[in-house]
UniProtKB/TrEMBL annotation:
Signal peptide: none annotated. This is LacI family transcriptional regulator. Pfam families: LacI (PF00356), Peripla_BP_3 (PF13377). InterPro entries: HTH_LacI (IPR000843), LacI/GalR-like_sensor (IPR046335), Lambda_DNA-bd_dom_sf (IPR010982), Peripla_BP_I (IPR028082). Keywords: DNA-binding, Repressor, Transcription, Transcription regulation. CDD domains: HTH_LacI (cd01392), PBP1_LacI_sugar_binding-like (cd06267). It comes from Devosia neptuniae. Residues 9-63 form the HTH lacI-type domain.
Amino acid sequence: MNSSRNRRPTIIDVAERAGVSKSTAARALAGSGNINDETRERVLRAAAATGYERNHLAVGMRSGRSGMLGLVIPDITNPFWGEVARGAQDRAAESGASLLVFSSDWDAAKEATHIGTLRRARVDGAIINPVADNFDDHHRFGLPFVFIGSSAERFADISSVGSDITQAVRLGMDHLVSKGHSAPSFIVGPKSRLARARFLRAVHEHCVERDIDPGILAMEDGEYTVEGGREAMRRLLERPHVGHVCVFAANDMMALGAMMAVREAGLNCPADVSIIGFDGIPSGEFAWPGLTTIAKPGREIGVRAVEQLFDEIEHRPEHGRIYMPCRLIERGSLADLSVPAPKRVAAG
């Protein structure tokens, strides 16, 4: 049995096949500028033919870089965070980097464990959506990092990127008013989450500008999940109400759960209950009726976060918050009450 068939090809195998020295082959594969194009092409063909792959661990030990980045998001099952991860992965790959993705499940202890794992893996830097809003011990990370998400706004001295929540909520509220829904109900996140406060602050400002008392608006909170929205909608429907019900949910998962609760109550969306979501996840398009929503730029957030992280790694950061604008996606889950219903004429 030929044992050479079972061993990993080395740089010596590449050099012999290309007819160059070991050092020339190494420089060509590293992208060195002092290698002519013909030689570089010959070495690359030899590497492909032999199946050679560079030892990135060894390269990283010499350069101080691993070529790996970390991403810690709160809920990998939420399609919005999947979009963020996809954008980050694509941008990292463009620069030859790999991305390690962890989900904290909204658990601060898990988040701390994941950050420790990334540090031990010697990643070049990490992108983190801090689930703990009192994230004051970030100096312990020991690696370059940027923040994403609403909690990041508290840290002006740290590079971060996220949706413009104020712009997004105003966009949604203005659209509701244009459709005749001036005093909607709300399904929001847990009281412990800063995202909830950001959302409600924008709602309050909008109401004050339109001379609406925010205290009259019905509100239920819950987890940012389908079941959280479903239970919150059930509680809203149990409240006394007259006429049409309109609900603004703080994320699309909640909105989809609310639509389920409406059907379970024997009601119709949007004839009896209008619902608007927040995030712009793809599944909203396939709901019936389609979910009207304020779409966050998830993929673009991932891209910009990686670009910010590269700046941190290269020691050229411009600390501050990047606010990404959101957009309205109008589908069928909102009734238009701005147009009077046609009068029915009794047959003579």
